[in-house]
Amino acid sequence: MLNSYYLYLPRYTMSTPDIMPQFEPIILVDMRLKSVDAIMEDLSKRDSRFRFIKESYDEFLYGEFGLHQVIRQLKTSISNSPEPDRWPEDLNQRKYPSLLFQENPFNYLWVIFYDIVTTAIYELLNVFDIDITLQQALEVMEDRSRAVVLLEALNEKSKALSPQPAKPFPLNKPVLNPPKEDGYRHPNRLESTNIRVLCIQPGPKESPIQCSLEERNLDNDIIEEALSYVWGKPLFDKAIDIDGSSFDITTKLNDILRSLRHEDVTRKIWIDAICINQSDLEEKSHQVRLMRDIYSKAQKTSIWLGDWPTEQMITESDFVRDPLNVVATVPEGFGNSVDQYDIASILDEYLKCQTDISAWDEKQLSLGTMLMRCVNIILMHEWWERVWTIQEAALPPNEPIIHLRGYQFPFGTLISAMDAAAKIDDEWKSIPDTFITANRDNDMYIAFVSQIIHWRERQIYDNLFLLMLRPEKRKQVHLSNPQDRLFQFVLRAADSYRATDPRDKIFALESLLIRSIGRLMNVDYNESTDAVFKRATARGWNQSAGAAICCYKLSVEQYNSLDDGALGPSWVHDLACSDAITPHRFILRIKDRGPPICGVSREQTKCFATPRSLFCSGVSISTVYYKERFPDLREGGVKIYTQFTSRFLEQAGRKILRLERQMQDTTRDITARRTGDSGPSINTETERLSKDCHIS
């Protein structure tokens, strides 16, 4: 338990009121710690379902970026400051500037504290099957500091109640890879910080795969390597030997193991599909909570892209004969004989002879085309779309190694190639018309332009959340910034990534958040998708109602992406439905002809969500002038969205112009009637126009 804030920083309470706003988040938290501390201790003892909140609270106090750490940092900076009456400058210095909370680097403390308190309220209501009154909700919506008062009241009320039994999650779908009676079975359930590591015994590539499993402790032992790959179809049609027993795996994983196996030494690597007992939901939940530490401690991380693009995607024509085909092969002997998938060599050759595009010769044009093609192909791989891969590539302390068609290269090499591709794109925007005219019939030039167009359509360079998290990228956001690792920001940034299990859309974010709020994800595969999504949505509404309104599904007709039934109340977001979010995510206000905007002020919107209810103030967004069913983007993605938007804007523009002319005609009619002419009443005319302009 912390002592009073005033005991730590006494000289700032009275003598320097001009810098007190910097300390406000710490004061707000500190004044409420005593009662919250007692409640967290009490709840965790009364029911195990509150333990994850207690763990989160302890991390908030004593963990990384926690309150104790901040106060120690403050004491050190203030005691060493040459100007004791000024805010220490070193507290504002960060290697990576934050996107959020620019003015005060400690505002995130109050955000986390409020998140923990409101999550505790949610779980109290859920476990004891009660709800709050409208008046209680209004008090919290008007003053967030009242959330602690509400938590105290609910805790007292719950003491007279019995907790409701946990609702079992029906396993409608079979376990992906259940152990066979005569096959390998994991000997025990892993606990604490223990994990398993796969030891691949050496051997020739085509010989049977022999392995063993070793148990390791994350606190004390070395983790040599971790694998990041896409599972693919759940067809377990291959078998390997683990400790003398058969263990079924997919064809893809079998190919990976054969490629990774050394001929002379044992290779030790963590692979989730094997090292975690996937049929034991308790162990699976426990191990997923440890993935932050697994990838953070791994001395090496391998990203497996394999034989991509697949043979089915590659046509017989090369990209000179088929220049519009982005994945068409490179002609033999093309580009100074550099292999078309060896991105490191392509980049080296390109950098040796790069000049302004308008001065390119045939060799430079071929190398530029090969570079753009190779980058595009790498980023077309489904690995970049999976939500688990964010943490698997962002957390390792050393650069991950990417494996592509027999080549290996560091993650930083891909970043450098993307930088070069972006520079090519920028220079191409200002290329002289004479150069375009001279090359418009050149198949090589057409292939080059096709690669640039593909690069732009996918918006590859700026929209991949993962690339913002690796230090090689040098982007604004980085894992060292606690302000940018809060729930609402990470949830929004990762919304377009996919997961086979819908719950993983939430669980996979645990490792990317500050550990204290990551614990609030409550990774538990015994919970239903509906329960997981409801808790996550409630956190979004309670943290930032305006952001929650802007982010999800208001610009599209929502459909249920789940196969196991309806998705709770209507205010619960279908977080598995990645493609239902447009690239802009906002409501289109066509009449203003400006950029897509929501028109909702965060100050206007006040919400509070409980397991039963969403208390929310109404907000007027705008007038609907035109409507049309939004297409299903699961098949065509960006292409379908682009076609729909183009057609929608054209038709909506015509509708608006027609309505504007009608309004002008109506105005003239009204003016004429006021001068004595007869005609329909003003109210009748207004009602007619309202039917044209509004959708209820």
Q: Top keywords for this entry?
A:
11 strands, alpha/beta, 28 helices, disordered N terminus, four-stranded mixed beta sheet, 44% helix, five-stranded mixed beta sheet
In terms of topology, how is this protein built?
Blueprint: H1 5-8, H2 11-14, H3 20-30, H4 33-46, H5 51-62, H6 67-80, H7 107-127, H8 134-142, H9 146-158, E1 194-200, E2 210-217, E3 225-228, E4 238-242, E5 245-249, H10 251-260, E6 267-269, H11 272-275, H12 281-289, H13 291-297, E7 300-306, H14 343-353, H15 362-380, H16 388-394, E8 401-404, E9 407-410, H17 411-429, H18 433-439, H19 443-458, H20 460-463, H21 465-469, H22 487-493, H23 504-507, H24 515-518, H25 529-543, H26 545-551, E10 607-609, E11 614-616, H27 638-674, H28 682-693
Parallel strand pairs: 2-4, 3-7, 7-8
Antiparallel strand pairs: 1-2, 1-6, 4-5, 8-9, 10-11
Helix pairs in contact: 3-7, 4-5, 4-9, 5-7, 7-9, 7-25, 14-15, 14-17, 15-17, 15-19, 25-26, 27-28
